[in-house]
Amino acid sequence: MIEFDRKLIAYGIIGLVIVIAVPILIAVRRRRRREKLRRRGIKTYGH
Q1: Is residue 14 within a helix (H) or strand (E), and if so which, with residue range?
Q2: CA 15 → CA 19, 25, 33, distances in Å?
Q3: What pTM, to 2 d.p., does this model score?
Q4: Which of 25, 26, 32, 45 is buried deepest, with most CB atoms within 10 A?
Q5: How confident is the model at residue 16 (pLDDT cuts 50, 70, 90)?
Q6: Are 45 and 34 in contact (CB under 8 A)?
Q7: Residue 41 has what DSSP assignment?
Q8: Contact at 8 Å (CB) between 30 and 22?
């Protein structure tokens, strides 16, 4: 029973990290692409 609880907690933590990290990574990627386009001189990015 203790082993099952430990696994459940471990998977819960991993799941939380993924749920928090994925939206942050997507936001960072979008921002980087926007900055690259801005440096090239394209002003209408993201539309």
Answers
A1: helix 2-40
A2: 6, 15, 27
A3: 0.53
A4: 45
A5: very high
A6: yes
A7: T
A8: no
Tokens of 43: 């002003």
Structure-block tokens of residue 44? 């209408």
Tell me the two tokens of residue 42: 């394209």
Listed in sequence order, the residues at least 6 apart from 38 whose beta carbon sits closer than 8 Å to its beta carbon are 45
Contact 15, 27 (CB under 8 A): no
Distance in angstroms (rounded) separating the CA atoms of residues 47 and 32: 16
Q: Take residue 46 and report the two structure tokens written for it.
A: 């993201």
Residue 43 has pLDDT above 70, yes or no: no
User: Alpha-carbon distance 15 to 23, whole Å?
Assistant: 13
